[in-house]
Design brief:
The complex is a heterodimer. Chain A has 16 helices and 16 strands. Chain A is α+β, with helices and mostly antiparallel strands. In chain A, the strands form four sheets. In chain A, strands 1, 2, 6, 7, 10, 11, 12, 13 and 14 form a nine-stranded mixed sheet that branches. In chain A, strand 8 and strand 9 form a beta hairpin. Chain B is an alpha/beta fold. Chain B is built from 15 helices and eleven strands. Chain B has an eleven-stranded mixed sheet, sandwiched between helices. The longest helix of chain B is centred in the last third of the chain and has 23 residues. Classes of the chains: A alpha+beta, B alpha/beta. Chains A and B meet through loops of A and helix 9 of B.
Chain lengths: ~500, ~500
């Protein structure tokens, strides 16, 4: 996008404290479940919503002597994601064990990539409105195993464990602290999700837990962030707190807002922020301390001896790069230049890859702007009303394209087109044939229109006199003619003929 | 034929081929012998019914012709190997009642070759020990005896060593993380080879220290080791550290010709306070190889003295993580909980009850060396030492050395209980000649080469180039032939 469209950096969010103005500095860690049928180190299925403990291989349950074997497809997906974020792909990466005890972690360690992640530095442009974009640097992406699920509410005395999710591949996407407000944070997640969905590497479903965010929040006085950016010295920034495991855009914003205000209040009171992990309570709209830095686990990371370092070939990476789809930023820029759309419309149309494909099929060889209007206003509007996705659209691109062609040729008016759209939406059918069969075709024959105009003028002599003094009344005649022709007369032609006949 | 259980694999194979012997007879002889050998504490889970069924199937296969060499050979399997439908406890209370639903690749490979499993063999808990005194089943006992004392068969594969030396089975599987095949082999007068790391699959073998663990055969002869190793090893896609290399016919490589082979004698293995008879055995071994036409070369492996400390950082570090899964949640022992106990109490009580002292000690050491602030000083430094030790070996091999001759152990078998109150580090010294081999991932073999003054067996160790087990076995075969070690323990059990 930067190559095609110029962007301005948005202003950071400023919160006025009791004494001072404060700015927010936010970094995020996004856990994105890799779209893959099998887990990261086992052949067990990753299907969501299966019977508890039905998708569990021996290695997932950490049975004695069981060993992990890397799923090549998950590696490919991570590489694809890295390429999509214009990031460095590390041909050498390695897996480490992160050790801690929890019943939903059968091995007693999570296999992750602390020291040598598979993907290095990249970037995401976060859209904050037409012409405004925040560049967020990606620090790294690593592959790791998801944990299982503890169930505490089935029995008063016991807890249960479901290992279906245990070992499912996650990509942890770590950003630099380049996000400057709650809205930007949500927009960052949205943009990331959009890219991952384009790539097909994560379904981005936050409700089912396919995407979760840890948010690091700190506050600083205006000017401090710029010093950090210049030096990359975190000393210029405030102490951060990490809010764990957020799974909704709304909560992310609310949690950041609360957390920032909490920190500002402490600082303005002369207190200090202690680095800690916090949880967001959506019911109370507050963050609560989960554990302090002192209580933090010592994960005793060390290289996983069951797995050899992951060495991949540049040629393999190149092959994956060749299969990369057009990404949102590029597509948006192309829609602007190729179809003459506004950046806003291009943004709406490229938000989802299927939407964009639908639009392109409609616009192909037709009036792009007109196609955009129809897809966005009529089709999306109608689908939204019925809570349908684009894949459930009863109107095909060919049908909508047909309607647009009829408009462009002047065969039907915009108003008739809306009726036609409604017919096709509910009944289906070929637009041109429907127009023909139901006599919806616009009358452009000036002879016929002249006759109709003459009739209306003859029938309304009083109005004719008035109109000669007040030309605005021409609308009355146009309306009458349209009514007389059943709305099929070309309004532009009617207007011209009425004006001429009235001598206006 | 009498005393069938005393046969070697090679002899039994040949006899079965000729039709002079059936696996059923052989198996029955072993089962009878096992029944009378409770005092040795070698077999801890017996599977006679399974053994008889497997023997029957093996006999049919032999009759049909084209059976593999190992077909019909009755074996003992170390308790560290998971065996489908048969208790597999790794000598630990924490795996009480655990019966795997899967078969380890190595034991499956053996089954595919038609072997017969007589039962599971005693071992130090989680393979941590050098005397088989840390087992939940109690001690395994060395069939060798010189006075009233019961002697250790060594460890951790003590049950395997005892069973093979006492002719309870024709051979056994062992595993070796720091010497656990070679030291007990030396203590009991049998042969044991730890192949190159990656030669045998670790899948289904309860992990102690993943980067060091290797399975191998424990046998009555070098030829048997060659035959059995071939059946055990091979590439396994289920183990990422398993090597995708062809498996040669090791037995065919026992040519008896080692002329021109360069055998290195590392000066750093001459330890202070080493008993004279070990020293003497070592030079005798060198002489034997020289007589066979090999060239004896003095070499230096300068980082040897750091091997034991590095090993006792790396192995416990990996173990502390590998053993985290024994938490009482899914299988094995779970402590009875008091009212109000939560998950933390469940972990603490389960692991306190389930793990013995030595395992707890190593889990704590491992946790410590990996902890924040100590990682670089211990674990990372140990990894660097490990790289240097490997380089020592690479360097001498690059100089043309074919194999390295060392003693297998610093002493003969000691009495059970003698080390009870000793500093644990003293016990660790048993591994001084063997751990370097694991750290470098090399093949190493222990061959019985003589008796000490009291009449207890002593072994020599040969260390080979990576993936050159065939060559190593051939050299060991020559030592075996020239040493002419034929002594057997007197049956007292």
């Amino acid at each position: 996008m930067l190559d095609h469209l110029a962007y301005e950096t948005p202003a950071p969010k400023v919160i006025a404290g009791a004494k001072d103005d404060w700015e927010l500095v936010i970094g995020m860690e996004i856990h994105a479940q890799v779209s893959s049928n099998a887990k990261l180190f086992s052949g067990a299925s990753t299907t969501f919503g299966a019977e508890p403990n039905s998708n569990v291989a021996f290695v997932d349950a950490a049975m004695p002597g069981m060993l992990p074997v890397i799923n090549e497809y998950c590696v490919e997906q991570a590489v694809r994601t890295g390429l999509g974020l214009k990031a460095e792909i590390n041909l050498f990466s390695a897996f480490d064990r992160k050790n801690y005890f929890y019943p939903d972690l059968p091995q007693g360690y999570q296999i992750s990539q602390l020291y040598h992640p598979i993907v290095g530095e990249g970037e995401v442009i976060v859209d904050m409105g037409p012409g405004i974009g925040r560049k967020v640097r990606i620090e790294r992406i690593h592959l790791e195993q998801d944990a299982g699920k503890s169930v505490h509410d089935m029995d008063p005395n016991m807890s249960f464990v479901d290992l279906n999710r245990t070992g499912v591949a996650l990509m942890e996407i770590v950003s630099r602290p380049d996000i400057r407000g709650p809205e930007e944070a949500a927009a960052f997640v949205t943009k990331l999700r959009q890219i991952l969905r384009y790539l097909g590497t994560c379904d981005g479903n936050m409700q089912s837990g396919s995407m979760r965010a840890d948010v690091n929040v700190s506050v600083c006085r205006p000017g401090q962030y710029e010093k950090y950016m210049e030096t990359q010295d975190f000393g210029h920034l405030g102490t951060r707190c990490e809010i764990k495991n957020m799974n909704s855009m709304r909560f992310i914003q609310a949690a950041i807002e609360f957390e920032a205000r909490r920190q500002i209040a402490i600082l303005e009171d002369g207190g200090e922020i202690t680095q800690e992990t916090r949880l967001y309570d959506a019911d109370k709209n507050e963050t609560r301390s989960m554990r302090s830095k002192e209580e933090a686990h010592d994960y005793r990371y060390f290289p996983c001896p069951d797995l050899l370092p992951l060495e991949i070939e540049q040629s393999w990476v190149d092959d994956i790069a060749k299969t990369l789809p057009e990404l949102p930023d590029e597509k948006k820029a192309r829609f602007v230049t190729e179809f003459g759309l506004s950046e806003y419309d291009a943004g709406v149309l490229t938000a989802g890859v299927r939407n964009a494909a639908f639009f392109e099929a409609v616009a192909e060889g037709r009036d792009g702007k007109l196609a955009a209007n129809w897809v966005i206003n009529e089709l999306f509007g109608r689908l939204k009303k019925e809570d349908h996705s684009i894949s459930e659209s009863p109107v095909s691109p060919a049908q909508l394209g047909g309607i647009i062609e009829l408009i462009s040729k002047g065969d039907i008016s915009g108003k008739i087109a809306k009726d036609l759209f409604e017919i096709i939406y509910t009944e289906g059918g070929d637009p041109a044939k429907i127009v023909e069969d139901r006599g919806m075709k616009q009358v452009t024959d000036t002879g016929a229109i002249e006759a109709a105009v003459d009739e209306v003028i003859a029938a309304n002599p009083a109005q004719v006199e008035k109109a000669k003094e007040n030309p605005k009344l021409v609308g009355f005649f146009v309306g009458q003619v349209m009514k007389a022709t059943g709305g099929k007369a070309n309004p532009k032609a009617v207007n011209e003929i009425v004006s001429a006949k009235l001598g206006l | 034929m009498a005393d069938l259980n005393k046969l070697t694999i090679a002899d039994a194979r040949d006899a079965m081929r000729k039709g002079d012997l059936t696996s059923a007879e052989l198996t029955e002889a072993c089962l009878t012998e096992i029944e009378g050998a409770g005092a040795l504490g070698a077999f801890v889970h017996n599977t006679p019914d399974l053994a008889r069924a497997q023997a029957k199937a093996a006999d049919e296969r032999i009759k049909a012709g084209d059976a593999p060499d190992m077909c019909g050979i009755p074996l003992g399997i170390k308790d560290l190997f998971c065996t489908k439908g048969v208790a597999s406890q790794a000598g630990s209370r924490i795996l009480e009642g655990f019966v795997p639903e899967y078969e380890s690749t190595v034991s499956q490979n053996l089954l595919d070759n038609g072997t017969v499993m007589l039962g599971k063999l005693n071992m130090d808990e989680f393979a941590m020990g050098s005397s088989n005194e840390t087992s939940v089943y109690g001690n395994a006992v060395n069939p060798w005896k010189i006075d009233d004392r019961k002697l250790t068969p060594g460890g951790s594969s003590g049950g395997s060593a005892s069973a093979v030396a006492a002719n309870l089975c024709l051979a056994a599987t062992g595993t070796d993380t720091g010497g656990s095949i070679r030291q007990p082999a030396a203590f009991t007068g049998i042969t044991g080879i730890k192949p190159t790391y990656g030669r045998c699959s670790r899948w289904g073998v309860v992990a102690f220290a993943s980067s060091l663990d290797q399975a191998g055969p424990m046998t009555k002869s070098v030829r048997d080791a060659a035959i059995m190793l071939e059946a055990m090893c091979g590439h396994d896609p289920k183990d990422s550290t398993s090597a995708d290399l062809p498996v040669p016919n090791f037995e065919a490589m026992l040519t008896g010709d080692i002329k021109g082979k360069k055998i290195g004698i590392p000066k750093e293995y001459r330890m202070d306070g080493m008993p004279d008879e070990i020293e003497a055995l070592w030079s005798t071994g060198a002489d034997m190889l020289r007589d066979a036409g090999a060239e004896i070369v003095d070499i230096s492996l300068p980082h040897t003295k750091y091997a034991l400390p590095a090993y006792y950082v790396i192995a416990p570090a990996e173990a502390s993580s590998n053993l985290a899964r024994y938490d009482g949640v899914r299988y094995g022992h779970r402590a009875k909980l008091a009212a109000g106990d939560g998950i933390t109490e469940m972990y603490e009580k389960t692991r306190a009850e389930g793990f013995g002292d030595e395992v707890q000690r190593r889990v704590m050491v491992g946790t410590y060396v990996l902890s924040a602030g100590f990682y670089d000083a211990y674990y990372n430094r140990a990894r660097k030492v490990r790289a240097l030790i490997k380089k020592d070996f690479d360097d001498v091999f690059a100089q043309g050395i074919d194999a390295i001759l060392t003693p297998a152990t610093p002493s003969a078998a000691f009495g059970l209980g003698e080390m009870e109150n000793a500093d644990p580090v003293k016990m660790y010294l048993n591994d001084v000649f063997t751990v370097t081999v694991n750290l470098a991932g090399l093949p190493g073999i222990s061959v019985p080469a003589g008796l000490d003054a009291q009449g207890l067996p002593l072994g020599l160790q040969l260390i080979g180039r990576p993936w050159e087990e065939g060559d190593l076995l051939n050299i060991a075969h020559e030592v075996e032939a020239r040493a002419g070690f034929v002594a057997k323990p007197q049956k007292w059990w």
